[in-house]
Structure to design on (172 residues):
């Protein structure tokens, strides 16, 4: 798949088939996520792979009752690891850890799309609740939930703002 096709063709999928995602495939996708750029190459992200039904239902409740989260065979919780960005001080903790996780999340979405899997980037969730549910240490922040599996829908593309509204040349 060409990169432009992957970028333009990827959709947020909110309906999944029950087919399991093989562990080998999950590992391949997580490796692609890990190849994302990171501040100082500190790779300040970790991934929690959730496949257990009760935990997925709890994640759905913690994400404003978005039931599709529990419907996916797998939910990857992308986390920021604050210890890995200590060298950058406050900017590392407040910004770089989020950027590292976001870049990894985008890679995960595109890699899944390439192999015919659907995903949705979920950012609306109770961070403390997810931390407690998954037993995350205090220096690890859950930053994105990514339900993942075979799509049971084929969503239409969403609209995009025209570039002229978004791009500012040389200054605002």
């Amino acid at each position: 798949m060409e990169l432009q096709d992957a970028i333009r063709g990827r959709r947020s999928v909110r309906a999944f088939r029950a087919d399991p995602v093989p562990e080998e495939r999950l590992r391949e996708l997580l490796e692609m996520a890990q190849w994302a750029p990171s501040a100082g190459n500190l790779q300040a992200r970790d991934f929690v792979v959730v496949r257990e039904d009760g935990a997925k239902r709890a994640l759905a409740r913690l994400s404003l009752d978005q039931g599709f989260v529990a419907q996916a065979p797998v939910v990857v919780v992308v986390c920021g690891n604050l210890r890995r960005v200590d060298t950058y001080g406050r900017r590392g903790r407040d910004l770089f850890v989020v950027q590292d996780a976001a870049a990894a999340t985008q890679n995960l979405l595109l890699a899944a799309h390439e192999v015919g899997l659907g995903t949705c980037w979920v950012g609306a969730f109770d961070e403390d609740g997810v931390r407690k549910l998954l037993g995350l240490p205090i220096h690890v922040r859950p930053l994105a939930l990514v339900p993942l599996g075979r799509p049971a829908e084929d969503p239409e593309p969403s609209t995009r703002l025209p570039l002229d509204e978004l791009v500012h040349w040389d200054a605002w």
Remarks:
- The chain is about 40% helix and 15% strand.
- The mean pLDDT is 97.
- The longest strand covers residues 140-149.
